[in-house]
Fold Gamma-glutamyl phosphate reductase.
Amino acid sequence: MTDLNKLGQQAKESAYQLGLLDTATKNQLLAKMADALEANTPVILEANAQDLAKSDDYGIKETMKDRLRLTEERIKEMADGIRQVIQLPDPIGEVEKMWKNADGLMIGRQRVPLGVIGIIYESRPNVTTDAASLCFKTGNAVILRGGKEAFYSNQILVKILQDTLVANDFSPYAIQFIDDTSHAIANELMRLTEYLDVLIPRGGAGLIQRVKETATVPVIETGTGNNHVYVDKDAQLQMALDIAVNAKVQRPSVCNAIETLLVHQDVAEFFLPKLAETLDGQVEFRGDERALPFLPNASVATEEDWATEYLDYILAVKVVDSIEEAITHINRYNTKHSEAIVTDNYFASQKFLKEVDAAAVYVNASTRFTDGFVFGFGAEIGISTQKLHARGPMGLPELTSTKYIVYGDGQIRG
Amino acid sequence: MTDLNKLGQQAKESAYQLGLLDTATKNQLLAKMADALEANTPVILEANAQDLAKSDDYGIKETMKDRLRLTEERIKEMADGIRQVIQLPDPIGEVEKMWKNADGLMIGRQRVPLGVIGIIYESRPNVTTDAASLCFKTGNAVILRGGKEAFYSNQILVKILQDTLVANDFSPYAIQFIDDTSHAIANELMRLTEYLDVLIPRGGAGLIQRVKETATVPVIETGTGNNHVYVDKDAQLQMALDIAVNAKVQRPSVCNAIETLLVHQDVAEFFLPKLAETLDGQVEFRGDERALPFLPNASVATEEDWATEYLDYILAVKVVDSIEEAITHINRYNTKHSEAIVTDNYFASQKFLKEVDAAAVYVNASTRFTDGFVFGFGAEIGISTQKLHARGPMGLPELTSTKYIVYGDGQIRG
């Protein structure tokens, strides 16, 4: 039985040391971790083969198996991922602003690590090295709890990182792995208030819901995206078609793909048949009663469809009377992730940007751009769908906190 | 029985409308609220008299009774507090930065309201109008749950604010009050995940601990301050004395006062007798074995003393061998609020600023300065002692979230 309190205690002590490291030292350790991954390619592949051998027992689909499978090239990519993190600026220590107050105190707001970060995630083993290196770079100790599908891969990856730390006289507890894939231990992690400064769950709607109900530690919710494209009456129909198709099928299994298309009644009869034709045989349509006449082979959309993140080649379609109805529908059913309008109308674009409640709101662009790398952050630890602390793609600064440093010359309060 | 789901639903709808108001409209409504408070002075005093009449039943101390008592002047101060909020810049709508990414998308990060904020607080009725006006200014709906001691005062204050909203054709549900002072309803509020975007508890260690164990909604912990002044071997003793005395007795009942004084062994014999003399008869000392010889009438400090926020005229005192021992003691026992070193030594000051884990770390100044007004924020909704979202004194920007607004011209992801 894993003793989470022990892991938490170790992480806390390690976080303190880690928080005091300078950037050069952190980068040197990260470089050694990257080298160690490559040097240990055979044992990683061996562990990964153990996971793959079990994947049929777990009933894992072929597409997921592919994401789980490691190759020499993919291990090199993981190492290169760590090398990219080395190149990123270190936010720790930065004083964002400093001012003199009325008492003559110089007050500065300085970026510091969060402390101990817990991450619960699912299949892909590259998340292990990505998350570990991003947390390390920002001076945070991390406690990783991966899914059972990648258990052996994750375990060996963390062991290699820890061995590297020990070989370089640093605490291995900066990066820890929970050797237990039960729900019970995950729930315990969600309530480890004494040690965890934040928990980041990365996974499907089921995990996020469980975290919401269970967690008492500070949480950054990530990932679930029930997103929409709204085709306005003043849309350029070819642009709308390109954006809708891209947002739906370029990669349907990711959180920034769309699940429902909304179309203004004035253009539905022109737009929907083209959409149906373009995606014929590739996408299953579920339409409301006004959309159905323009969508051959579509089934009737139910209330549940509006609320579902399919992550699949399925698209719900609804015809709306107005932009107001589109915005109301979106704000009612979305998961506050990514939303787009296609329009040539200035006022419609401004209204949509202002009134739609989501982490990222687009005018005339695909929702698929919601991504830390694409936004230019150089890294991504996840996409926050909550409003506290971080919203949207999270880069290195989102893994930090602040403290006020105050320089006085004897001031007391009168 | 209060139906929190109903309050939550109403708050959510109201928050949506409130989020769309422009600054001038919000300020006009706030001005009318301020006027209405003054105009209703007699009924407020009447409700406050009801609270005061009950205060003996609740066993409230005289100092607390004083904080509960309203007068014509104090009601005017509450109204003026709202008028000060009107003067503050409105952070909503501000685009902090905007850049063009590699795909030619213009991406801006814009400040938006958090949505629905819950606040659990204790006795003082002025918190009701302060919190309501700060949340309103930042476009957030608020659900207030005050303590039983100020129940009638809080109730009438919220009613006056709501009546003002209704009289001006705005939803009264922007500012709601929970008509129930039971622990059960507070616990329910802590788990209202469907509606609350954040919960801010303002109160003592007991409340904060209960929130920590119970809350599943996002929380900003506030307030508890087990703070220290460390007198270094290179301190100017008169400055150290002034700062220690100010931090302890200028107002011992507040969260930025100190509870423990740490003194370097090299200066203990000079400093402690002066401290004892200065605070003789005013402060009860509890010392470790090395401090006791220099503190006449002191009792022996126990392990519990190091961890206690007295909020009273009591000071724990410990002699340390080194700055390292001081920092270790602080990081072990503090509540991450406010910490100060007194020293003339450059390296000691930098070490303390870097290694002490707290929201505000001071060199040669009293911890009593940790305060949103003193820091220059113009307002304060509380002092966060957690690391997520906000740390230290929280002003208006800490009551906001962000969203990315993205301007494209037809981009799709390749």
Notes: Chain B touches chain A through 70 residues (CB under 8 Å). The two ends of chain B are 56 Å apart (CA to CA). The CA atoms of residues 16 and 115 of chain B lie 7 Å apart.
